[in-house]
Amino acid sequence: MNNVDRLSGAARLLAGLAWFIPCLYSSAPAAAELMLYQGRTLFANQDTRVSSVLLHYAIQGNEWLDGVLLSYGQFDGVYRRSDNQWYSVGAYWQFWQQGQGYFEFEFAPTYLRHRFMAGHFVGSNWHFTSALSYNYRLESIPLTLALRYQHTSNGGVSHPNPGIDALGISARYRF
Predict the structure, then answer these.
(1) What keywords sit in the KW lines (predicted)?
(2) How many domains is the chain built from?
């Protein structure tokens, strides 16, 4: 199975959940966005590509968070022990909205399929992913473009904890 097949399968799964998850959090209809992200790891780990599919659900009337997210992603590197897949469920908050632009912070407990990531032993399958992005919502079509910084680590829960940073771009489609 190649990367495109994995990502398209994950996108279908996440889209199928689009009708179920908002019912868990709110009786009001929620807006949903499907996001594709492509990036590269930074610093000592520049050999690895990062790609993911995320599904964002806006929650209306909730004062604690702006929405929930589901994601599937993968690290693809040039070394045998660089490849890995992850799955996460978390929350996001949007802030500093100016016109069509806004910042967004995400935090999600993350399960890694293997204990190696970007060529490093990472101590555990359980990690945390946090991301900060600047998003620009296009007016004429239901699309949002973003520059996204992402950090994945085990938060010091197990050793070693090298942490992996990535920078990339994303596109979201609102439905």
Answers:
(1) Hydrolase
(2) 1
What is the per-residue pLDDT for 80?
58
DSSP string, 18-48: TTTHHHHH-SS---EEEEEEEEEE-GGGTTE
Torsion of CA 117, 122, 128, 130, to 10 degrees: -50
- Residue 43 backbone zone (phi > 0: left; psi -120 to 50: alpha; other: beta): left
Q: Does the pLDDT of residue 106 top 90, yes or no?
A: yes
What is the C-alpha separation between 170 and 57, in angstroms, rounded? 16
- Render pLDDT for 123-146 as a digit per residue (tens, 0 to 9): 888 999 999 999 999 989 999 999
Q: Is the pLDDT of residue 104 over 70?
A: yes
Q: Could you give the CA distance from residue 135 to residue 130 in angstroms, rounded to a whole number?
A: 16
Residue type, 43: F
